[in-house]
Design brief:
With about 140 residues, the chain is of the alpha+beta class. The protein contains 2 helices and 8 strands, in the order ββββαβββαβ. The protein has one domain: Nucleoside Triphosphate Pyrophosphohydrolase (Alpha-Beta Complex), CATH 3.90.79.10.
Length: about 140
């Protein structure tokens, strides 16, 4: 049995919570042209999800954000995705790799070409009454 593949994904919102930074995906193929949270792979089994989130976000946007808060895990066959939220200057972000960083209004996310789960993950990230959630994808 192979080692699970684990990822991190983060939503950086503007301080007023009206805008969110997303990445326009090029790969994998099923995500091409769609917007997703910013993140990537946890590189080693001893790397914490928080450390991976800080590293991946800085690699992709050029911004060092240290105050990520974990709010959800999505578990699927073969691994998991740890979701984080933070607030800051979304206008200071830059595209540092092949995939373009974009800033969109939160109230328009449902009308954009996104990964399907962003329609519920973005509101969950902003829900001040939320508790940490774990979602199992058994498909």
């Amino acid at each position: 049995m192979s080692e699970p593949t684990n990822y991190v994904a983060g939503f950086l919102f503007s301080e007023d919570k009206k805008r969110v930074a997303l990445v326009k995906k090029e790969k994998p193929d099923w995500q091409r042209g769609k917007l997703n949270a910013i993140g990537g792979k946890i590189e080693t089994s001893d790397q914490s999800p928080l450390f991976a989130m800080v590293r991946e976000f800085q690699e992709e946007t050029g911004a060092l954000v240290n105050d990520w808060r974990h709010f959800c895990d999505l578990r699927f066959r073969g691994g998991s995705i740890h979701f984080f939220v933070s607030f800051g200057d979304v206008e200071a972000l830059r595209t540092m790799e092949a995939e373009e960083i974009q800033v969109h209004f939160v109230d328009q996310v449902g009308q954009l070409a996104t990964i399907p789960n962003l329609r519920w993950l973005v509101p969950l990230a902003l829900d001040k009454d939320r508790v940490a959630a774990t979602v199992e994808d058994n498909s």
